[in-house]
Every structure is written in C-alpha cells, then in structure tokens.
Amino acid sequence: MSDTVIRVEHLSKKYIIAHQQKKKGSNQTLRELITDGVKSFSSKLLKPTKENSLNPDREEFWALNDVSFEIKQGDRVGIIGRNGAGKSTLLKILSRITEPTNGRIVIKGRVASLLEVGTGFHGELTGRENIYLNGAILGMSKAEIKRKFDEIVAFAEVEKFLDTPVKRYSSGMYVRLAFAVAAHLEPEILIVDEVLAVGDAQFQKKCLGRMEKVAEEGKTVIFVSHQMAAISNLCSSCIMLKSGKLAFHGNTQYAIKRYLEVDHQNQQEPEKELINFRPSWAKPLITSVRVLDSDNRENSSFPLGADITFEMTFNSGNYPKLKTPVMGVVIHHELFGTLTGVNTRMTGFETNGKYYNSATMLCRVKHIPLLQGNYTVDIWLGDGAIDIDTLTGYLSFRIEGTDIYGTGRTPFSNMGVIFLEPKWQIISES
Ligand SMILES: Nc1ncnc2c1ncn2[C@@H]1O[C@H](COP(=O)(O)OP(=O)(O)O)[C@@H](O)[C@H]1O
Ligand SMILES: [Mg+2]
C-alpha cells in the first residue's frame, strides 16, 4: 500500500435494532467486554437473554453503507456529517471496537483512539490502572508506558485522582485523561471522536494543539468534529458521510462549504455545541435534541397550529443506566419569557421499568397553541426526581403567521403568544 496507512473497502455495518435492546454478543470484541465494565458483564452472565432468538421486532439498519477510501501516512483527515451519519461507527470499526458487517479495512500501524465518552476506559479501574491497560492494549511494554506516564498525568491534570476509579470522575476529567492517554502513547494513527464537544474551551484548545503536534510528527490523525473551525484548522482533507454513505472525500474547505450548504440548511449553526447550553451540574448524557415536524423531519419553522415534536436522545455512557428516564420540555418566548413546561412524570407517562443505557424520547404536541414568534426550548433529563442533564436555549423554532382561519387574515402578532381556536356563537338575538 506504499504510503497508504488505512484502506477501507466497501465497508458496511448493519445494526439489528431489537426493540430498545442494544444487540450485543457474537460481534463483541475483547476490548468491548473490557470497556463494558464488570457490572454489565456480570449481569449478562447472570441473566442470559432468551428474547433474541425469537424476537419478531427486529429491524435492520445500515449505519455504514459501502464506504471506500484511503488515507495516507501523515494525513490529517476530518470526518464530518450530521448526527447519525455513521461517523462514530466508522471510527469504532477503525479502532476495532466493532466488526464490520461487510467489506474490509487494512490498517498499517498502531491505532490509539478516543471515542465517545464511555468507551476505552474501565470504570472500576483507577486512572493509573487505565493508563496501563490502554498502553497494554496498544501493545506497549510496561517500561514504555512508565516513560509516558508523567506526561499523560500532567496533560490531563488529574494528579489528585490517579488512584480513584474513573467511574467517579466528572465527564471533563474522564475525557481529559482519555485524550491524554490516546495522544501520548505514541500511536502511529490517532483517532479522535468529538472530544471537543466535552470539556472546557481551554482544554479543547490544548487538545487541538496536541493533535497538531502529533500530526507534525508525521503521524496520521483522524478527527470527527461538528466544529468546522477546528476541522478547518487541523485537517488536510475531509470525508463527509451522509446517511452511512460517503458523500465526499477531498479538499477540507470544499467539504466544509458543502456541509454547511447542503447539510445545514435551516439548521442550527455548527458552532452551537451542546456543551455551551448546559449548566455546570449537568451530566452530559443528552446527546441530541431536535424539533420535528409532522413528517418527523427536523424543522425550525412551523405554521400556526402545527403539530410539533420535541426529541431527546440520551446515552448514559460511563454513568449508571437510568431507571426512570424523565423528559421535560420548557418553552420560552424571546420577549415574554417562560411560557409553559411539561414533563413525562407530571403527565403520568410511564417507562417500562427497565434500566436504560440509551433512548430517544419524543414529546408530541398537537396543534401547538402559540402565535407567530420566536421560541426557545429547554430540554431536561431526569432519573425519577433526580436532575441529570439539561440543555437550556439550545433548541429554537419559529411560528409563522398564516391564514389559519381561512379568512385572508393572520392572527394579531401584537397580542401576546397564545393562539386560540375559538368557536363563536350568538345565543340570544333580537
Ligand atoms: N449499537 C447500535 N445499535 C443500533 N444502532 C446503532 C448502534 N450504534 C449506532 N447506531 C445507529 O447508527 C447510526 C449511525 O450512528 P453513529 O455512527 O453514532 O453516527 P454519528 O457518529 O455520525 O452521529 C445512527 O442512526 C445510530 O442510531
Ligand atoms: Mg458520533
């Protein structure tokens, strides 16, 4: 392959979605077992599942579909695409966390990866033990790891917590350590998934600097981000994925232009990172929130009286699974402030009593009673009565004035925010 270090040929990944059940088992690699944690592993041993063999509700889903490309030594490749495009799946296959369904990959060199929070580290082990475990997985000797140890700890700023199990780390600490490990254990190929979405701005800068340094040393860097500024600064070329397919591979600036034009029409600006919309107490479990129209398509502009759906996806990642996930929605008007709020608990919606690792929850509102104007929405995630996460002001939508009454007149726009659909009567006349 000359200077080609990664060759991806007709790569496809099929997921079987088995009714709220994350299918695992045959394809699970050793690393997956390690990173899954002792708890879930032992519960699996204790409770063998019967459902899988005879489940009629299995649905096939292609997260990656016939993707081929080559990456050369020293390339700095950005991978962009909307949520669900298949970016993380691709990185997991390249990191050998997951097996492809079809196609193959050929990789020359030692890969270190920093994937989504929740993979790569063993929650029960301390920071120190995880550094050694990851080094060992990378094929390094104890002496080699030891040489890098202080550098990793200093970069991650976790000296005080080295002997604490990483499950007790805040998400910021966790990511700092995970990044430091991946970026310092001298991989030949460094794979980083959305690390900039977590952690503070200063650390993000530090990570980017470190990735640049790794690239300057002639190593190959593969980097997923929604921050086009970061992609633009770091990447020498870009791969754009769209619904599991390779939509573009080439010039970074051109890829970014296409991504913004084609994929982000009427959408949130890419700079809008979730992290900027959460308070400091929040555990970053909500991975995506969207406003959908009656065709279940993401939308931000609706006619009066439209049916609107608020969608929230969470993933408990490295945190304990949620027993009773509660979704809350609060709507604000740009001038009038907070208008209303509602949640699954108050309205008597019951989850099924399982422990949820991840889920997408919908709040469907029929004929939303709002006049034309601009609204923002807070989405809240709880576990029973406990606050877990919230994104305040990230989502927004607009109601357009329309001739909803069929009279050629739109409702007043200077009459507050509540939209009424009255029935008029004259009951006494003379
Ligand atoms: N373990 C899984 N089981 C079922 N579906 C999955 C699994 N992992 C990812 N998916 C689905 O595959 C698609 C691609 O996911 P992902 O690679 O995480 O996208 P991205 O990182 O681009 O947002 C999504 O629709 C996601 O819901
Ligand atoms: Mg992803």
Principal-axis shape: elongated
What distance separates the N and C termini? 95 Å
Number of helices: 9
Ligands present: adenosine-5'-diphosphate, magnesium ion
Q: What is the CATH-assigned architecture of the largest domain? A: 3-Layer(aba) Sandwich
Strand content: 25-35%
Could you say what the CATH topology of the largest domain is called? Rossmann fold
The biggest sheet amounts to: 6 strands, mixed
- Topology pattern, helix = H, strand = E: EEHHEEHEEHHHEHEHEEHEEEEEEEE
Average pLDDT, all residues: 83
**How many domains?**
2
Helical content stands at 10-25%
Tell me the Rg in angstroms.
24 Å
**How many beta strands in the DSSP annotation?**
18
Instruction: Provide the CATH top-level class of the largest domain.
Output: Alpha Beta
Overall description:
Helix content is 23%, strand content 32%. It is built from 9 helices and 18 strands. Mean pLDDT is 83; it is low at 20-30, 32-53 and 263-271. It has helices at residues 30-36, 38-46, 87-94, 127-137, 142-156, 171-184, 201-216, 228-234, 252-263, and strands at 4-18, 21-22, 58-72, 76-80, 102-107, 111-114, 189-193, 220-224, 237-242, 245-250, 286-292, 301-303, 308-315, 325-333, 337-343, 358-365, 373-383, 386-400. A 6-stranded mixed β-sheet has the order 6-7-8-4-9-10, with helices on both faces. Helix 4 (127-137) packs across helix 5 and helix 5 packs across helix 6 (171-184). The protein binds adenosine-5'-diphosphate and magnesium ion.
